[in-house]
């Protein structure tokens, strides 16, 4: 149940924060960890798994905005508990600092240590709720101006796996007061969906799945109760049957395969009128996660055509078609395509008249990127490389 | 923390500074003191004074912080100053201070156990745990007590009892009924405790499951997994409910996989992987969830591929293989290789082989080195299992130029096929000849071994064409610096000299198709990993003793989990106590089948096909491996610690047939052991001996029901505690006790009536007399015949 050390390393392996709770792990664990992660060679994998063991010490890490959050222990603990905890520590620190990066860490290290002392005592987790922590924490965060941040690439959300959208709310500290001393009563509710669709080469949909989160970030004072009404025709599939059976039985309405809720959510009236009631704790938290495999119309259609143009050259034509109503506009879209390791060069040709589009070949991870600022419905966009 | 600058020189000034009333400043001082006190034990004495004063401050925050800093100093000679503030901290009316005091007690215990015990802190913690109104205080008490009593239990009986009392029904229900008051982390703690609780009856089980059902909808994966573990362990003895549990937990786990960061999904997926491998049929319809997405990290993809192979069955093989074939062209080469291997594994599972073989052969036409290499290895394995496909495969394989293959494994596979199917491949001798000519450039010993064997096989089929090449190969082989290559070449040479026909029988006997490839992980290890569900064991896919040292084994160190061998308490002791156990019969039978296969074909990929004579030696090695594995496993839990070498020595001594006659062992005829104790011991003790002996066929004939053997063994003071199985495999658990002292011998005996063989595994309290007991046991078993003979004759 307990962890021995917690530390945060920068991408270059610099020690940003380090706390030893139980003094069981020999010195130098940060270097051991970093070397292992950077030069991971085992079983042909390029990436180190989030959990590994070196000389009886178990290292857990999660990557959050390029920083390594690491915990070590000698005990055979529950892996998901530690990984969940690391993720949660990152979230708490972000709630306080507003922005997570090396700079904000360094400027606020006393506050971060103060937080770490309250979150974990002697290796045992005490609390990770920003709400509870607020009464124990006395340092004021030094806010790093979000303007100095690089804009977060929306595509990075999915490649990082985290489901967080950039918005004005996200970079504001939960505890710090706005300059001018006034505090705005605000609550942000984001619905973030990750839609995975596989198209066959002829354009048919092979698999489709939606993983969604309703995320809240509350700046409300006095903890009022909030009610969140969902679609009334929402159904939740109950165990037993295969999720793929629903296709035949589905009439109208949205059918979720399964969902889970944050611990503050009360489900008293959920069965009757699909309403969630909750007293939102301070900070950012997911209200509900859900998953569905019901058939739906994907927002985009992707068409590709690959032609080998000679021995060492291939031509790819990518077309995407937006399929949503014309009053909706999609912003900041990125199309990525992994290329073989031996690709040395890529050239692009955009459709004539394409504005606000950018193409790029990322040498380091052999990735072809195509950024579109805006996509209005029913327009086909073409690109060849 | 100070950007690497050592600021310990200002320690004195900092101590002065901490007299401030500003809490922010004070906290910084505490932080400083906590960091540097260990390096300055003399100076820390200074801090004690003000920390003690702060422990009496009006502000509970300051009281708490001071107490925490005081306990975190980790300076042994200052412990006397801790007891007073801790005592009052535990009685403080503010819950924040109490929470810190409870953890403080644990810190004190780690600095000086005797001070902690002498102050009677554990008892105080216990009453706090049962009566405090604050959930976090209660949770900290629980974790502190668990740690203290686990460490104490090794030398104090009282601590042992106290530790057991945590698992009593009232305590467990006290926690479970209030579980919603605790935060998510404390919930995990409680659930981990509940796993070890042994419910009294099935109502008890259902009560707990009802209490915890809604925990499965929690957004925190750790809570859900801990709940899943409780459910799985509770229902182990109820097969049908156990199945329902699988159904129930499937959906929440799949949601968790897709809702967290890749790291979190990895942890959840590893657990799903374990469940999928255990019960593939339950997940067979959900195979699409295991399809890989292009942006997933490779460690997630790898798990998913393994799960896809596990769930493949008649109905979904086609789709899965189609999907896997897409991955084979993946830009990520490691994943592409993995997926080809996955296709091969599915083919070996016997579903829809026809289509898969076609697919594999298409891979060969893709003309990518790594695809070809992986595929060749698979085709070789497939041919061993399905010789009927040789015609199709060989025609394609024959078209591959050996020059394009560099990887040793693939090269070895190709060479094996050249040797095996020399008569079907017109240019086989010439290809081999070419390869042999480049003997010097061949760096892999494995390839050279295969070359030798292939040359031999080819020679038996097409002697005139191969003779020259074989001569070159043998000459080169005998001159080889690698010991194995040299030995094999010499052996072939001498066998050929002796008699060509004998050589042919040795090197190239008529082969039977392999029906089942041996599983690499023994089922015992798999069961152990399952027992340690929701721990790192699942991630590493090995039990905890293989990667942790004994003092850090955590919750599994002293736990007596309910294992896979479910023994129900016996009702009457007069009648032969033989219980049937149903849930595991299948497992058991499978286990034996695998072992038989193992003996027959040998699981060694490399040299095995050509050297059936190795059989017995590989058997010995496997025995030794078993011993070696079980050795460190349980040595931590046995009271008498014995060296690893000892164990190994024992293992070796079983191998040669003539053993020195051991001293006679007297067994207690009225020995008694209750099933629970047996189970616990069986888990704790290492396997002292594994042996195989044959049973007289006449005895086998009498063994139509297990009772006959049980009665017989009882007459030799060896008592049966459980038995099961049906013809041809019977499994018995026996125990015996020494006449004079309460030293137990536990035995697992698996009798296969068709092969008339018995496999015996002995575990003993006392290692020294183990051999003697085994002899007694075997003698008793061998006498089974005559007795039943009498028995039979009496009947007529």
TrEMBL record, chain A:
Name of the protein described by the UniProt record: Clathrin adaptor complexes medium subunit family protein
**Signal peptide feature range:** none
Transport keyword on record: yes
Q: Which UniProt keywords apply?
A: Golgi apparatus, Membrane, Protein transport, Transport
Q: Does the keyword ATP-binding apply?
A: no
One Pfam family, short name please? Adap_comp_sub
Q: Tell me which GO cellular component terms the UniProt record holds.
A: clathrin adaptor complex; Golgi apparatus
- PANTHER family, alphabetized: AP COMPLEX SUBUNIT MU
- Give the family this protein belongs to, as stated in its UniProt record: Belongs to the adaptor complexes medium subunit family.
Instruction: Name where it's found.
Output: Endomembrane system; Golgi apparatus
Q: Which organism is it from?
A: Arabidopsis thaliana
Instruction: Tell me which Gene Ontology terms the entry assigns under biological process.
Output: intracellular protein transport; vesicle-mediated transport
* Span of domain MHD: 184-385
UniProtKB/TrEMBL annotation, chain B:
What InterPro entries does the database record attribute to this sequence?
AP_beta, AP_complex_bsu_1_2_4, ARM-like, ARM-type_fold, B-adaptin_app_sub_C, Clathrin/coatomer_adapt-like_N, TBP_dom_sf
- Listed GO CC annotations: clathrin adaptor complex; endomembrane system
Sorted alphabetically, the keyword list is:
Membrane, Protein transport, Transport
Biological process terms in GO annotation: intracellular protein transport; vesicle-mediated transport
The residues covered by the Beta-adaptin appendage C-terminal subdomain domain are 665-782
Composition skew (Polar residues), residue ranges: 600-617
- Where, per UniProt, does this protein localize? Endomembrane system
Query: GO MF annotations for this entry?
Result: clathrin binding
Q: Where does this protein chiefly localize?
A: membrane
Region (Disordered) residue ranges read 596-617
Pfam family, any one: Adaptin_N
State which residue ranges cross the membrane. Answer: none
Per the entry, what this protein does is: Subunit of clathrin-associated adaptor protein complex that plays a role in protein sorting in the late-Golgi/trans-Golgi network (TGN) and/or endosomes. The AP complexes mediate both the recruitment of clathrin to membranes and the recognition of sorting signals within the cytosolic tails of transmembrane cargo molecules.
**Quaternary structure?**
Adaptor protein complexes are heterotetramers composed of two large adaptins (beta-type subunit and alpha-type or delta-type or epsilon-type or gamma-type subunit), a medium adaptin (mu-type subunit) and a small adaptin (sigma-type subunit).
Q: Which family does it belong to?
A: Belongs to the adaptor complexes large subunit family.
Name of the featured protein = Beta-adaptin-like protein
Organism the protein comes from: Arabidopsis thaliana
Tell me the classification of the organism that encodes this protein: Eukaryota, Viridiplantae, Streptophyta, Embryophyta, Tracheophyta
Q: What's the name of its gene?
A: AP4B
